Amino acid sequence: MTIQVNLYEAKTQLSRLVDQAAGGEKVIIARNGRPVAALGPLPKHEVVRRTPGDWKGKGWIAPDFDETPDEVVDLFYGDSR
């Protein structure tokens, strides 16, 4: 079912209209009798459950990943170290 409401009514009754739209009803909002917007339900999304450990063994970190060469540190800090 589709209902049409004017902009003023939509502003004052937004919560009720959103509830109707979430329930599957299409709500058309009109300005001066001309439709300008529509409220409707969002499509249902399937919840994807994560399984801990899915990425185990699929990545690696280099043993020296947190070591910064002195030349790079000097570029940032100069003589202030």
TrEMBL record:
**What Pfam families is this protein classified in?**
PhdYeFM_antitox
Q: What does this protein do?
A: Antitoxin component of a type II toxin-antitoxin (TA) system.
Family, according to the entry, reads as follows: Belongs to the phD/YefM antitoxin family.
Q: What is this protein called?
A: Antitoxin
Naturally occurring in which organism (per UniProt): Actinoalloteichus fjordicus
